[in-house]
Recover the amino acids of this structure.
């Protein structure tokens, strides 16, 4: 649209659109008017478009520049395309500046965090202190372990191993740790977990907000107990008392023994802060055996499953770690031996120490026979603990009322004492599944037998590996955190619906007596009466 | 993964803990070029490794000029001597799906069909053969299934020429970071299943030369899907792990041409996936 017109006769632009009076003709006598006309035309050309922000003047200038630079053939035929190309060139530049910014941060933030790992905060005093205290270095040599596993084709990227090494060093600096080990990596849907197995120094607790999870689970269980008591206290309508007794809660093992022997710290990536996992309870282990869920990577994610898992993902992770450790942590036979004072009961042997006279068998032997390897972690019983406990004994303390009646009934149902395999059993005793042995042993290389390493892969927990080479051995886990089962996983069925109330003679329906029965009953009654009267009266009676 | 980029690719895929020992890596870098020469492949891909109970199978694939044509597959027990596998047939696929349990590690091991599928066993007996399925056939079928169900390439990496053959796209410079985080920018590198069902409206936005494959976002189960996508190494590598076939890892470095996938696992489908999500 013409922004300037229509011109009125007194305005200088009047007549410019007439063929005879265009600015290109010398017909306009007044040079001043012509200059003004030119200025108006130029101003019109310089007007920026409201849609695109371009103006015609610059656009033409660009087109002509481009044409003169490139000098294409048959320019007049392709002039429209040239115009379009110039316009496109304009647009692309602007959109790039908008897009670049949000893309930069994520990569660089993570790089910053990793860089922080490398910063050595050691001052002179700290370093001396540290050397004096520790007899043995608490920090494991992750790179050495990674090297041995690499000979078997297992392991992470070298860079990642090194980051984990540095992250463990940070962990040791922060927490009072006696021994520390890189346990492995568990993959998750959104994030992964890097897990460190740690033994805290005696008498010290880790300073961490790990208590919160424990409390929430304890509270949940208390609530169910209270709800039942409320029911019983109702006196108005006296509904039938619930005879449901939840099975007594099996107490978890004390820290430092059994399944809670080690404390586990996890982090999502090296460089992120380490989080302590809460100790595991037998109920969690029992439930974890029945479900199979992927880890999402968020420790506070709920685990939605049936049977309902008592806890969140941190508890599920801890339970799986306990199961994997109990099932797959092995060492060469003879490396560990029982402590000198022999215990009478098999179950009591919880402690072991390194055997100074251990002679490592040659690698070929370690690969051939599985009897050269032994578990050094106690297996978990069906109850969910390593050491069996009789739950009915404990129940006296826990529950407050109505114990006396129930105890007599339940005496006949003493739970069977469970015995697991004793500590330091050879892994050749492990059962396989169908025709698959529980372990696969291989040498890392057949071409150079003198330097090969014996590698064990677990078939029950795919992803668990162990290697042994001379006196060195190590266990590790890389995987999704699930047990292998030849059949598909079948979730537990819900329990049958409970009877609403106990059936007794008062409420059981019986058929009403029929008329004949009533008559017969009446006659029988009368006869009884008659006999009674006859005995009393000596006279005869009327009919 | 491309044979030439195996060392770099293995470093990127190692997030799951699986990889190759230095001995095998060295053997691969020696034997794969020889394979290319002997079989006259245009490209050789190292497909991965299937762990058996007693040994492992290492698999390589060779591609001809049309990258979407059926590929020749070879297996080896030590990364040095490769044997060609016959192409998969439908019966092999059907039978192998019924065989459960780990691979044994011995290619001539025979699974007795009578336990698994009595009808098939009966049919085989009638036609004069023994009612068994060899581990080699199971291997072929498993590799074919894995490729079909979870073989992944990024969008734009391959183009379809008007004649129907598929080539690598030399102009592919990698997905941008924004695109790389979306499941829809990755395709199954197999025959079409879903694309034909899209409405015309959706098809109008697609570019037929690059969008001729199914994208991953329609994989069942929807929502969380059967893929776990993570950014590793500080966001420089996008790693897709399949949850249906545990062990398949796909990696791509955005803004570069590097991508590839490899399978390191036991060769069993994860049928418990719906319970596990």
């Amino acid at each position: 649209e013409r922004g300037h017109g229509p011109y009125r006769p007194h305005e200088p632009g009047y007549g410019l659109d007439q063929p005879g009076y265009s600015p290109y003709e010398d017909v306009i006598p007044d040079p001043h008017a012509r200059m003004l006309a030119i200025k108006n035309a130029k101003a019109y050309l310089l007007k920026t478009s409201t849609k695109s922000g371009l103006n015609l003047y610059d656009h033409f200038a660009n087109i002509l520049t481009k044409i003169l630079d490139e000098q294409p053939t048959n320019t007049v035929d392709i002039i429209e395309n040239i115009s379009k190309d110039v316009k496109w060139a304009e647009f692309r530049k602007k959109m790039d500046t908008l897009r670049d910014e949000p893309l930069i941060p994520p990569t660089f933030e993570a790089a910053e965090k990793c860089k922080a790992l490398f910063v050595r905060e050691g001052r002179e005093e700290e370093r001396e202190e540290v050397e004096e205290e520790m007899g043995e270095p608490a920090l494991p040599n992750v790179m050495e372990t990674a090297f041995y596993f690499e000979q078997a084709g297992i392991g992470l990227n070298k860079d990642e191993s090194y980051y984990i090494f540095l992250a463990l060093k940070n962990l040791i600096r922060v927490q009072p740790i006696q021994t520390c080990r890189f346990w492995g990596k568990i993959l998750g849907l959104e994030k992964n977990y890097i897990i460190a197995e740690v033994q805290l120094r005696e008498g010290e607790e880790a300073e961490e907000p790990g208590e919160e999870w424990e409390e929430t689970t304890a509270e949940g269980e208390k609530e169910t107990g209270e709800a039942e008591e409320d029911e019983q206290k109702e006196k108005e309508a006296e509904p039938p008392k619930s005879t449901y007794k939840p099975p007594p809660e099996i107490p978890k093992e004390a820290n430092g023994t059994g399944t809670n022997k080690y404390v586990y710290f996890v982090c999502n990536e090296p460089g992120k802060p380490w989080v302590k996992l809460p100790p595991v309870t037998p109920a969690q282990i029992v439930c974890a055996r029945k479900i199979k869920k992927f880890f999402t990577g968020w420790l506070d994610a709920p685990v939605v499953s049936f049977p309902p898992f008592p806890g969140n993902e941190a508890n599920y992770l801890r339970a799986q770690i306990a199961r994997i450790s109990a099932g797959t942590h092995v060492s060469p036979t003879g490396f560990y031996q029982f402590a000198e004072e022999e215990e009478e009961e098999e179950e009591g042997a919880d402690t072991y120490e390194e055997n100074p006279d251990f002679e490592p068998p040659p690698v070929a032997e370690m690969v051939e026979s599985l009897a050269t390897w032994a578990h050094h972690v106690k297996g978990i019983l069906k109850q969910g603990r390593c050491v069996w406990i009789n739950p009915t004994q404990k129940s006296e303390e826990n529950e407050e009322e109505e114990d006396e009646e129930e105890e007599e009934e339940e005496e006949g149902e003493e739970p069977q004492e469970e015995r697991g395999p004793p500590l330091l059993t050879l892994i050749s005793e492990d059962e396989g599944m169908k025709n698959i042995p529980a372990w696969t042993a291989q040498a890392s290389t057949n071409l150079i037998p003198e330097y090969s390493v014996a590698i064990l892969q677990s078939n029950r927990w795919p992803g668990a590996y162990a290697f042994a080479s001379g006196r060195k051995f190590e266990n590790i886990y890389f995987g999704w955190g699930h047990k292998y089962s030849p059949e598909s996983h079948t979730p537990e069925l819900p329990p049958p619906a409970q009877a609403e109330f106990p059936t007794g003679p008062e409420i059981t329906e019986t058929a009403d007596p029929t008329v004949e029965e009533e008559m017969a009953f009446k006659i029988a009654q009368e006869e009884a009466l008659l006999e009674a009267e006859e005995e009393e009266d000596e006279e005869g009676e009327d009919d | 993964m491309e044979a030439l980029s195996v060392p770099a690719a293995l470093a990127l895929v190692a997030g799951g803990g699986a990889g190759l020992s230095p001995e095998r890596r060295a053997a691969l870098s020696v034997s794969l070029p020889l394979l290319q020469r002997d079989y006259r492949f245009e490209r050789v891909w190292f497909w991965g490794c299937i762990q058996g109970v007693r040994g492992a199978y290492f698999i390589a694939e060779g591609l001809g000029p049309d990258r979407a044509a059926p590929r020749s597959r070879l297996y080896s027990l030590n990364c040095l001597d490769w044997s060609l596998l016959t192409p998969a047939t439908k019966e092999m696929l059907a039978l192998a799906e019924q065989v459960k349990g780990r691979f044994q590690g011995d290619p001539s091991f025979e699974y007795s069909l009578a336990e698994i599928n009595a009808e098939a066993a009966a049919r085989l007996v009638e036609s004069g053969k023994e009612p068994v399925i060899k581990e080699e056939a199971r291997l072929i079928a498993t590799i074919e299934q894995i490729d079909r169900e979870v073989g992944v390439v990024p969008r734009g990496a391959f183009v379809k020429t008007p004649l129907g053959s598929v080539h690598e796209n030399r102009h592919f410079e990698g997905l941008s970071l924004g695109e790389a985080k979306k499941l829809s920018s990755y395709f199954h590198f197999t025959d079409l299943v879903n694309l034909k069902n899209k409405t015309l409206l959706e098809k109008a936005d697609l570019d037929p030369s690059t969008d001729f494959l199914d994208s991953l976002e329609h994989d069942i189960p929807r929502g969380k899907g059967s893929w776990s996508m993570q950014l590793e190494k500080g966001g420089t590598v996008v790693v897709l792990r399949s949850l249906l076939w545990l062990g398949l890892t796909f990696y791509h470095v955005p803004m570069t041409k590097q991508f590839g996938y490899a399978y390191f696992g036991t060769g069993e489908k994860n049928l418990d996936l719906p319970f596990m999500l």
Chain A touches chain B through 54 residues (CB under 8 Å). Chain A has a mean pLDDT of 74.
